[in-house]
């Protein structure tokens, strides 16, 4: 007899695993299907050789605290936010700047005095954004007389969000709304005068996005990244894989199943209703509900196909902006590289960061890139921007070494002995992000985090509540509202929508 599951989750990234764990805990028959041989998606720790292990894409991370509590996860991340690693801006004289009030004082007494208020506001802004991300965004109606189209449950969610905004205080709420469309440069200038301090803060706003520090809406991305990190610096560096492995263990402990090396080729649709999936090997598996943690474009245009979707919906889906421009360079050293522990950024000025972005606008790899560097034991991991997926000239099958060269040259200006200490390296290009890790166009967020692609507009206008035109097919990856980065919010939220 063919087994019919209550829910099939496509993709064992952290959002898919979060959704699977919640559903399995409810007693549902859950099956997670993962294309790769390991779980984790882009939140994974891998070995690239003997004594050469690193967080492949995201440098550590953490799930939302309520997810950890709800699922009873026993992880080392529980108390990490109270013991934050430093966030350090590289300086040419070797006297690198730690971003805290005491260290900033040597550059600017005024900036040091303003630092506590900036941190307070950012924490409050992150709190407000978190409340918005926890709220299921109702669908925008296509009927002119009905600007909204939602039921009592969704309306109650908006009511709760409104209450959270009122409790935030009028001043902070207005400043939060005002900050969203600002540029990162403008937001930093509201508090600080030092170019070094402003640039270091602004660099976090463009992390993972194809935007410059002078781009509108980077005020929003700064708050978004601050929320996911709990501040400026990455946490749990070297432990990204532990997050998703803990989730996978939770899924299994609740009775869910996980199958690796099980690539979904297409979603079975009959009369606009999702009935199951077909694997690449031809195997068919039936389920009452299908949840996809793959990006919306891949899910809807490839796994479903245009023949089962309305023309206008297809057009909107095709128009989702991806535009990845991130590469990763992992270096195996003897451990004596001299790079300080914490999150280290190469962001000497706002103009420097903007010029790095300029290269991506013209389809070129930044020769003077924005770098964010973390270390784990003997391994140095470099987040490299900008390296556009769409190159004007060249081929990512050949140009990975360019990224490695530019990254090492840039870092060697601050750590002259670095190059001589490297024994092995591994480069992950935007093409690798797509082909190996399933990130279309190398976009870490399954769609750029932009003002026209968030809240009611994510993933596309009119479809912000995880549902699709196909009944019983839901989206739960980073490309939906609440997604982007490591948090698990999208996987948690979709469970609220399921009947």
**Biggest β-sheet strands, sense, barrel:** 7 strands, mixed
Shape assignment: globular
- CATH architectural type of the largest domain: 3-Layer(bba) Sandwich
Name given to the CATH homologous superfamily of the largest domain: FAD/NAD(P)-binding domain
- Please state the average pLDDT score: 92
Q: What is the assembly state of the chains in this entry?
A: single chain
Helical/strand content category:
alpha/beta
Find the count of extended strands (DSSP E, 2+ residues). Answer: 18
Question: Given this structure, which CATH class of the largest domain is correct?
Answer: Alpha Beta
Helix content: 25-40%
| Distinct helical segment count | 17
The name of the CATH topology of the largest domain is: FAD/NAD(P)-binding domain
The amount of beta strand, in percent, is 15-25%
Instruction: Kindly report how far apart the N and C termini lie.
Output: 26 Å
Low-confidence stretches: 77-81, 142-147
Radius of gyration: 22 Å
Number of domains: 3
